[in-house]
């Protein structure tokens, strides 16, 4: 196994390096997990709220909905859109950055 | 033949147009690459519509509404997780898979592990998931055709053997469920075998907009007629609006009034030192002018019973209007200021003298009722019976103590105050009351809920629920019939024995059920055979992502509507609770718009129609209630539109699945395993043969599942996908230590365990396995079998990790390159490089 080279000396082939792959996967996973935690927190938190705070979740809102019905039947969808929008914007940005970095590496070479 | 022409017309039109479009588009794109890359020339909008069109199956269109109606809140997890599953797919799987360029999951399995054997193993689950997914589509088809032809009568001829049988075995009017399944299954299979109905972008996009139109327009019309979504949900509270005196709890010290006192409000009763002055002053300040309310014309001011026999029908009819006083938060400040002002004037006028009996306009008095009922300034509505010219109606309470002495009437005394003047206040909802002359109110209290003859101003119309419908409280609240069914059965069985099951246990079992359901739906979306392929119908990754964003929006908007049908169906068409199979709640989307016809018939034709409408409440004669011939049958038209949407839903999904499954068989099993040397023409012929085989099996399976709910079956298909393909995709994309043995073992074990668990559940529900006693004794086992995802998904992942660690020498040699292709931006062109290397290597 080769030793990891110092970052200032660009590796001969950055794209195929272990380091680049690790960086890629770590970045992508961090973004995905960040969004996933927000999303799963919302999705898995609601049953818990129903379980532990039934009175609060039965509060009537907007002319008849119970709070929990409103959150699940209507409110969830915009929340999902926001997460999806954020993820898509960030991941397009991430890809652009990665391509740019590789391009710079090539030029340096 | 006595078939509603509108419903039949719309249904036939949909079928014909769908098939014609399929062939038309298939002619334009002949080759396989055309099929897959059809979207390359298509805009993001069209492509997003097409993906959404493919995604919305009979479960989305019919099943959700049916399940929300039958089970209430818990069923809402289905639409939400169908939409959320797409997000999960986007976050963890879609991007890498798109970069890898695998069109199907078996493609991916082979490419990721360089193993043609694994590909063949992976194909098995295309068939398992496919069959579990086609069954509910077939149920949708059978249900829809049974509804369209419900008035066909096969009795009294040689066809009688085909007539559907009642529970007592007597032939009934109607169209047999299995015949509907056979017809639809046959037509679509024929169509697929001929090469039509491929997943062409344009056809799928058209299907989406048809489904969206068909679900939303009837909802808006129904909400405009019967009250909006929120109030429909809200009507599931204490059911009956109770007469106020009985329902009110006399409140403790009125905090709000005390506050008013401190601000210098009146010390004493309402009104002024002399009644005359009060009369002059108060109307000028009354809420009537402040809120701009419109009140009923005085011309109707006779008692409603006049001219009719006593107790015949003491209610206002529809054509009479109710006085309505609405106050909202916007003018609340204004309203309070005005009252404050009033109090000051009143106080200055009479503080030195002893007050006579105060006089208050009724609308002002009723407004007081809300003052400390609502915690903050909020909109409230008061309905006054027709004929009450309210601002001039003065309440003259006899005993001044009722007024509360010092600071105006406390809320608890207002109903009594009104009662002593011959009026009754009926509390409908938190912020809505009605005021009647007492004679009417008493009759009102005894009238059946939702009687179509009564004008239910301010109320949500409800028909009486049959006994087998879940009660309001359980239906509305989380952990209702769907999730607690097994535990409740066990609880009932264990009652009185040593091991009674407590409420806490029931709720925690329900929580387990809920989490397992969420897990199945969210993870399962990624493993559906016909979903992933659509990520390739975009020219590049950025366009694919923008498309995905639009897909999330399109399906999210769609999924708001089906539950509304379920909620309204509970209020307006509860007779469906009594029906089983194809006549049960799964058809609520199709039939609900018909209530509009019954309504127009009831309003238009006087007593006769009213009687018919009343008869329809019992559920026997609802289908025979026809509108008067002159009126436009909006109910039938809208019902025809929802039927068209249902046809679009199950036809598109069934044919999409049939193409996927047949393709897998023809391509993988025949082309690679049985006859690797076969020519293209031979494979084409086998495609047709397999289409008939798979279509036939799916149709046959569909005939048996009438008692199972559409949505429930689709949930099971998701659970199998979640336990087999999801772990494979997820782990293969994110963990480079996976080996082919680990992947195959985990996928097979998880998938087969899930298939067996759900099959056992279904067999016992269909009565083929005598497990009822076992389930009652072990409710948790029943839940874990019905919803296996919670143990099958982690189990499969764990197994993959363990076996891969044990066989770590078999990790593919070029794993780094594979991971790079999965994760590096497409713009770097690693995929092409990889293919070149791969070809050179072989």
Strand portion of chain B: under 5%
Mean pLDDT over the full residue set of chain B = 74
The biggest beta sheet of chain A is recorded as: 2 strands, antiparallel
Helix content of chain A: over 70%
The assigned structural class of chain B equals mainly alpha
Largest sheet of chain B: 5 strands, mixed
Radius of gyration of chain A: 22 Å
The greatest inter-chain interface is formed by: A-B, 51 and 60 residues
> How would you write the strand order of the largest sheet of chain A?
1-2
Strand order of the largest sheet of chain B: 1-6-7-4-2
- Low-confidence stretches of chain B are 32-39, 238-320, 328-334, 350-357, 397-407, 602-630
Low-confidence stretches of chain A: 1-11
Number of strands of chain B: 7
In terms of structural class, how would the helical and strand content of chain A be classed? mainly alpha
Mean pLDDT of chain A: 82
How many alpha or pi helices of chain A?
3
- The helicity of chain B comes to 55-70%
Q: Which sequence of SSEs, written as H and E, runs from N to C of chain A?
A: HHEEH
What does this structure look like?
The complex is a heterodimer of chains A (109) and B (842). Chain A is built from 3 helices and 2 strands, in the order ααββα. With 109 residues, chain A is mainly alpha-helical. Chain A has a two-stranded antiparallel ribbon. In chain A, strand 1 and strand 2 form a beta hairpin. Residues 1-11 of chain A have low confidence and may be disordered. With 842 residues, chain B is mainly α. Chain B contains 34 helices and 7 strands. Chain B has a 5-stranded mixed β-sheet. In chain B, a hairpin with a 2-residue loop joins strand 6 and strand 7 (432-437). In chain B, helix 7 packs parallel to helix 29 (740-765). Chain B is globular. The relative contact order of chain B is 0.16. The model of chain B is unreliable at 32-39, 238-320, 328-334, 350-357, 397-407 and 602-630 (pLDDT under 50). At the A-B interface, helix 1, strand 2 and helix 3 of A face helix 5, helix 10, helix 21, helix 22 and helix 33 of B.
């Amino acid at each position: 196994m080769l030793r990891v080279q110092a970052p200032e000396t660009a590796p001969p082939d950055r794209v195929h390096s272990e380091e680049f792959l690790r960086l890629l996967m770590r970045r992508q996973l961090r973004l995905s997990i960040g969004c996933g935690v927000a999303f799963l927190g919302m999705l898995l938190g609601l049953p818990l709220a129903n379980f532990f705070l039934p009175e609060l979740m039965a509060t009537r809102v907007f002319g008849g909905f119970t709070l929990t019905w409103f959150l699940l039947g209507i409110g969830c969808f915009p929340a999902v859109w926001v997460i999806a929008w954020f993820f898509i914007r960030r991941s397009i940005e991430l890809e652009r950055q990665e391509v740019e970095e590789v391009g710079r590496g090539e030029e340096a070479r | 033949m006595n078939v509603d022409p509108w419903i039949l017309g719309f249904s036939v039109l949909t079928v014909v147009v769908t098939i014609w479009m399929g062939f038309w588009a298939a002619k334009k794109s002949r080759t396989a690459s055309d099929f897959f890359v059809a979207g390359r020339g298509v805009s993001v909008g069209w492509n997003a519509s097409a993906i959404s069109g493919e995604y919305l199956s009979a479960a989305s269109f019919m099943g959700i509404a049916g399940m929300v109606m039958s089970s209430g809140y818990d069923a809402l997890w289905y639409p939400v997780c169908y939409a959320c599953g797409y997000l999960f797919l986007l976050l963890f799987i879609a991007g890498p898979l798109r970069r890898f360029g695998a069109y199907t999951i078996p493609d991916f399995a082979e490419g990721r592990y360089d193993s043609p054997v694994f590909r063949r193993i992976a194909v098995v689950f295309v068939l398992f998931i496919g069959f579990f997914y086609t069954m509910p589509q077939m149920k949708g088809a059978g249900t829809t055709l049974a509804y369209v032809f419900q008035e066909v009568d096969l009795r009294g001829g040689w066809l009688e053997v085909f007539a559907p049988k009642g529970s007592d075995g007597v032939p009934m009017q109607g169209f047999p469920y299995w015949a509907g399944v056979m017809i639809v299954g046959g037509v679509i299979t024929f169509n697929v075998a001929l090469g039509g109905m491929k997943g062409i972008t344009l056809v799928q996009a058209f299907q989406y907009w048809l489904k969206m139109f068909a679900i939303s327009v009837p909802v808006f019309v129904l909400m405009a007629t019967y009250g909006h979504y929120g109030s429909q949900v809200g009507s599931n509270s204490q059911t009956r609006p109770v007469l106020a005196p009985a329902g009110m709890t006399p409140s403790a010290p009125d905090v709000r009034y005390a506050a008013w006192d401190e601000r210098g409000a009146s010390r004493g009763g309402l009104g002024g030192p002399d009644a005359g002055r009060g009369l002059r002053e108060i109307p000028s300040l009354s809420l009537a002018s402040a809120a701009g309310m419109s009140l009923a014309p005085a011309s109707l001011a006779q008692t409603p019973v006049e001219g009719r026999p006593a107790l015949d029908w003491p209610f206002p009819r529809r054509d009479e209007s109710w006085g309505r006083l609405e106050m909202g938060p916007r003018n609340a400040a204004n309203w309070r200021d005005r009252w404050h002002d009033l109090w000051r004037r009143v106080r200055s006028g009479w503080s030195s003298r002893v007050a006579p009996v105060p006089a208050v306009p009724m609308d002002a008095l009723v407004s007081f009722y809300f003052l400390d009922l609502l915690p903050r300034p909020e909109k409230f509505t008061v309905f006054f019976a027709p004929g009450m010219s309210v601002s001039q109606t003065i309440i003259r309470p006899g005993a001044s103590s009722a007024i509360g002495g010092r600071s105006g009437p406390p809320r608890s005394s207002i109903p009594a105050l009104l009662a002593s003047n011959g009026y009754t206040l009926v509390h409908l909802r938190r912020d809505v009351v009605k005021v009647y002359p007492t004679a009417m109110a008493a009759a009102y209290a005894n009238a059946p809920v939702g009687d179509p003859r009564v004008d239910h101003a301010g109320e949500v119309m409800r028909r009486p629920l049959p006994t087998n419908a879940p009660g309001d409280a359980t239906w509305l609240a989380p952990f209702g019939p769907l999730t607690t069914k097994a535990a409740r059965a066990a609880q009932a069985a264990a009652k009185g024995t040593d091991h009674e099951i407590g409420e806490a246990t029931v709720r925690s079992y329900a929580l387990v059920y809920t989490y397992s359901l969420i897990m199945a739906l969210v993870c399962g979306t990624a493993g559906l055979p016909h979903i992933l392929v659509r990520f390739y119908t975009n020219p590049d990754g950025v366009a694919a992502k923008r498309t995905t964003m639009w897909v999330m929006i399109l399906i999210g908007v769609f999924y708001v509507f089906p539950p509304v049908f379920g909620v309204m169906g509970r209020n307006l068409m509860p007779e469906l609770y009594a029906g089983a199979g194809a006549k049960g709640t799964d058809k609520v989307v199709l039939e609900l718009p018909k209530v509009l016809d019954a309504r127009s018939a009831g309003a238009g034709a006087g007593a006769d129609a009213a009687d018919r409408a009343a008869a329809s409440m019992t559920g026997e004669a609802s289908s025979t209630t026809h509108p008067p011939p002159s009126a436009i049958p909006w109910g039938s038209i809208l019902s025809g539109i929802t039927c068209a949407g249902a046809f679009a839903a199950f036809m598109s999904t069934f044919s999409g699945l049939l193409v996927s499954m047949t393709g897998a068989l023809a391509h993988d099993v025949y082309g690679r395993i049985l006859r690797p040397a076969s020519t293209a023409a031979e494979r084409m012929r086998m495609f047709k043969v397999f289409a008939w085989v798979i279509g036939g099996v799916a149709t046959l399976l569909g005939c048996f599942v009438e008692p199972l709910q559409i949505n429930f079956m689709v949930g099971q298909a998701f659970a199998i996908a979640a336990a087999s393909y999801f772990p494979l995709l997820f782990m293969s994309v994110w963990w480079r230590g996976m080996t082919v043995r680990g992947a195959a073992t985990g996928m097979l074990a998880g998938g087969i365990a899930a298939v067996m668990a759900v099959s056992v559940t279904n067999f016992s529900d269909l009565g083929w396995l005598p497990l009822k006693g076992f389930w009652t004794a072990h409710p948790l086992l029943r839940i874990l079998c019905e919803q296996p995802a919670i143990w099958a998904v982690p189990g499969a992942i764990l197994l993959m990790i363990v076996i891969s660690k044990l066989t770590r020498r078999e990790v593919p040699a070029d794993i780094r390159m594979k991971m790079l292709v999965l994760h590096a931006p497409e713009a770097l062109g690693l995929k092409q490089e990889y293919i070149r290397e791969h070809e050179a290597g072989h």
